[in-house]
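Please decode residue identities from the backbone states below.
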């Protein structure tokens, strides 16, 4: 809601990828150079292997007034700056899927040509989509393993929670809604209280109660170690994506 739809110009090779933009009231084109000619803030949202070709195409049109933001996984600021004119204001952004419901988690890093003004502009613009933090570039691949891929880990956990309730006799639809609200509430408490999750987890446990018995089973299944391993392998994969 911070930018009028009519001020946004989206470019893609096919109409298929532009339909959603048109339905939102945005302008569309098949010409990447047209975006550069009419825009100051330019987002590059391509697959990593496509990006070098796009950068080669737009390079002649990139000027000192442009702010270029890349969403391509694995493509470093160093690579972006090498493929664009010297001094270009470049930032690298990594969002996650819940941005589409304004509950995303995003991190970004700035290149050598981007200053405090560009960083503040991007953070302010994206704050409407959820949490947005500036980080060292080395954190971006970790964010991919933690949050970009982590959304899928949470869906798997939510599915298991609901199926456990179904096993015990609750209807599936109700179980799924309660599982989702449980995750939402737990996340909101972490954000609003600022407490460490271990502290909040301890607050739920009563001596000899249901929660500590259930946590014992999760520990037997090495839940924490398995999730840590998942973040590790996803992070390592993110580091290698651009090389494929």
């Amino acid at each position: 809601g911070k930018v009028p739809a009519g001020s946004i110009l989206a470019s893609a090779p096919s109409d298929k990828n532009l339909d959603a933009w048109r339905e939102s009231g945005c302008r569309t084109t098949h010409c990447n150079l047209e975006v550069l000619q009419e825009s100051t803030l330019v987002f590059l949202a391509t697959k990593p292997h496509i990006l070098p070709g796009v950068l080669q195409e737009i390079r002649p049109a990139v000027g000192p007034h442009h702010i270029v933001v890349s969403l391509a996984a694995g493509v470093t600021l160093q690579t972006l700056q090498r493929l664009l004119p010297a001094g270009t204001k470049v930032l690298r952004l990594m969002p996650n899927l819940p941005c589409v419901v304004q509950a995303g988690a995003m991190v970004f890093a700035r290149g050598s040509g981007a200053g405090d003004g560009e960083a503040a502009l991007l953070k302010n613009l994206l704050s409407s989509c959820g949490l947005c933090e500036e980080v060292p570039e080395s954190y971006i691949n970790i964010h991919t393993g933690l949050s970009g891929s982590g959304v899928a880990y949470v869906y798997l956990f939510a599915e298991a929670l609901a199926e456990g309730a179904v096993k015990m006799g609750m209807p599936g639809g109700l179980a799924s809604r309660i599982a989702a609200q449980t995750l939402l509430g737990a996340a909101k408490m972490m954000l609003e209280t600022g407490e460490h999750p271990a502290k909040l987890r301890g607050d739920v446990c009563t001596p000899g109660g249901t929660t500590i018995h259930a946590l014992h089973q999760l520990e037997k299944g090495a839940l924490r170690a398995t999730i840590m391993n998942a973040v590790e392998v996803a992070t390592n994969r993110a580091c290698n994506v651009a090389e494929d």
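Observation: The CA atoms of residues 217 and 223 lie 9 Å apart.
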